[in-house]
Amino acid sequence: MKNLLQHLQMLNFSQYESRAYLSLLQQGQVTGYELAKKSGIPASKVYAVLNKLLEKEVILALDSDPIRYTPIPPDEIVNRMKGSYLRTFEALSKGLNKIYRSDVADDHYIWNLSGRHEIMGRISEFLIQSKMSVYLSVWDEELDDFKTSLAQAHERGVQISVVHYGHEILGFGREYRHGREHKIRQQRGARRIALEIDDNKVILAHFLENGDSHALWTKSKGVVLLAKDYIIHDIYTIRIAEKFGDAALDIFESH
Q1: Which of 118, 158, 196, 208 could form a disulfide with 228 if both were Cys (CB 3.0 to 4.6 A apart)?
Q2: Which CATH architecture has domain 2-73?
Q3: In the chain, how many H helices and how many E strands?
């Protein structure tokens, strides 16, 4: 119930309006006095709240004595709101892009991120936007957070290349297992993500063992190509090791 109250408030319902509507859904047809008792809304405020809900067209006032109130079915309300918000977003997308000065966009900027939730959200967003190619270097501990977005990109025909630090296998795209996770974790004391999208943008994330996490993302061409080269270099190293054994890796690590 708490989550429903929060979601309704995000859709411009006040706390009392949210509580009144949810209470009406549970009770059916009630008077204002009955609603106040059941919902905990002060009797002095309940009729003002009901009038607001009538204005929003989410309840009906029945022709009875005393007047009784009933909710409009949730599916009807949700579908109406969804259509309204979609039209708003479409109008904003067209209007804002029309006035956007793309010729002065600052693609050289580097943006900082902090906190696992924010970082994972941005990674999923980038994967959803991908159109041609994805190069990814990732540890098992982070992969589950955006595996669905990665699979959806693959289904759209995006070429996926993944370097795994761990044992998890996606089952699609080109996958390469690094195989020296323990040694790298000891050296770095942290896990990393490198994600390059469409030769256009990159995110580099750092996850410390104490739970702290930081990242940066940019469209700066030099940084994007450098990150892609870094992942491709790892792929070459892994393929050489598969062909020639650990002796090949020892050569890389000795320099």
Answers
A1: 196
A2: Orthogonal Bundle (1.10)
A3: 11, 10
Task: Tokens for 47, please give them.
Answer: 């009729």
Tokens of 4: 């429903």
Q: Show pLDDT as tens, one digit a residue, over the chain (255 residues).
A: 778 888 898 888 999 999 999 999 998 889 999 999 989 999 999 999 999 999 999 999 998 888 999 999 999 999 999 998 899 999 998 888 888 765 555 677 889 998 999 999 999 999 999 999 999 999 888 998 899 999 999 999 999 999 988 888 889 999 998 777 666 666 667 889 999 999 999 999 999 878 889 999 999 989 999 999 999 998 988 888 777 776 655 655 554
Q: Where in the chain is the domain with CATH 1.10.10.10?
A: 2-73
Q: Give the tokens for residue 200.
A: 């256009």
- Whether pTM > 0.90 for this model: the answer is no
CA 160 to chain centre: 20
Q: For the domain 106-253, what is the CATH code?
A: 3.30.870.10
CA-nearest of 175, 165, 193, 180 to 253 is 180
Distances (CA, A) of 64 to 23, 61, 92: 20, 9, 43
Q: Render 52-65 in DSSP notation, one character per residue.
A: HHHHTTSEEEES-S
Which residue ranges does the chain devote to CATH 3.30.870.10?
106-253
Q: How far apart are CA 80 and CA 11, in angstroms?
A: 12
